[in-house]
Amino acid sequence: MELLRILSPFLSQLLLILLPQVSFAEFNTLPLKEATLADLQLGFKQNTLTSRQLVEFYLGQIQRLNPHLNAVTEVNPDALYEADKADHERRAKAPVSNSMLHGIPILLKDNIATKDKLNTTAGSFALLGSIVPRDSGVATKLRKAGAIILGKASMTEWAAFKSNNAPNGWSARGGQGVNPYNSSVTPCGSSSGSGIAVAANMAAVTLGTDTSGSILCPSSFNAAVGIRPTVGLTSRAGVVPISSRQDTIGPICRTVTDAVHVLDAIAGIDHDDIATIETSKYIPKGGYAQFLKRDGLKGKRIGIARGFFDFGDALFLLKHLSNISRHILIFRQGGAVLVDHLKITNALEIFGNSSGERTALEIEFKIYLNAYLKELVSSPVRSLADVIAFNNKNSKLEKIKEYGQDILTSSQATKGIGNEWKAAVSNLGRLSKNGFEKLMKKNKLDALVTAGEIVSSVLAIGGFPGIIVPAGYEDGVPIGICFGGLRGAEPKLIEIAYAFEQATKIRNPPPLNF
């Protein structure tokens, strides 16, 4: 049995190599690369495309590209069966076939549980072979919408909460994820595989998770659209956790429209995550797609955070500010009211070691991970202590010698909810209230715009939403533009992000010369 566990990851990689052999010529007449959900649904409606053909196309893309990009950990052996089921439902005019996600293949980050033949490992061998009790809340909603779970996307191991030395996009199971635009540049993490896969057309859409930048960052670096929802807007049940204060689940797609359709499908109450009950008050009647408006910039008060980096890398600052400057005209032409030269006055403290974010996260990670592991039907590990012991025992397998597990061991040394945690969380609340919240309310802003994902921690500590959209390329490497708002601000952020996207249409697919 132990030998099977050790060989399983290699068998999984073999499965990726031995995917159904797809004739790419078969799809040359179908514009599947860069196809949107609307394109795909039109193909279904006009009987020029089936879900089986679509799944076979993406399996072929994975077969061809994954050896170079390491974006997919494993594929669902039942994906073609699910595709045939969707095609049957469409022919039978089943009500579910009216969903925008019906028959659409989706990759889920490898920390989002699915009760099927797929593993859920957070990129670690320690969870290989574990059996989850049920689908995660978001997987349940996706299946209800008729989506096909195509497989699991690779990720930074333990959502970048294992080692300070491990590079973004690396995991023991998935290897090193590669940015499809420039292999020498980070794909960013920890939803790296989700960003890579959707950029390289290895799936129609993907899901990621975000504790402090893990949706916004890979979206920025992979020319994708990422939505970090208000914490609690989407269920975290069945997702390998870090912190219930900051964890949130959201889409990574190629267009704002596609991301919004996915958000519509996964947002809402899940009684296995009580936070969704209170946060559901933010969900507008009629859903989020109604806010996809070309004139969405009109009348919006948008803050320009030019002074955001005054404590950081000057070269980074100059390159990114020039990117924002090129788009200020777009905001003005769209009718937005710009409030320029703003600063988050306590940004230095938020990003510093004294903020309390790392302290709070390390305390919470141990508590929430232990609870997750204990609920598994079966698992090689039942606690964070077991994970650390497993890594030590299998050091060569886990590459412990290269990257270590210092974050895991720091978390294990914590003593639970106490004065240290209370002080850290209190300080984070103060920083959020006196920084981002004060700036937004004082200037009556609908959104704060920043270049790249640098605002991630500011949004994360307050549970605030953000949407990032492709905004340009620096030396061939994508850079996004991020719109952040207060809790529940998704409708306004969607209007702004969509209008900006439609006015610019900057995204280009990666070259992929292999």
TrEMBL record:
Cytoplasm recorded as keyword: no
Keyword check for Secreted: no
Signal peptide: 1-25
Pfam families: Amidase (PF01425)
InterPro entries the record matches: Amidase_dom, AS_sf
Domain Amidase: from-to ranges: 54-309
Keywords for the protein's UniProt record, in alphabetical order: Signal
Top-rank taxon, per record: Eukaryota
Protein's recorded name: Probable amidase At4g34880
Native source organism of the sequence: Ziziphus jujuba
Protein's gene: LOC107427546
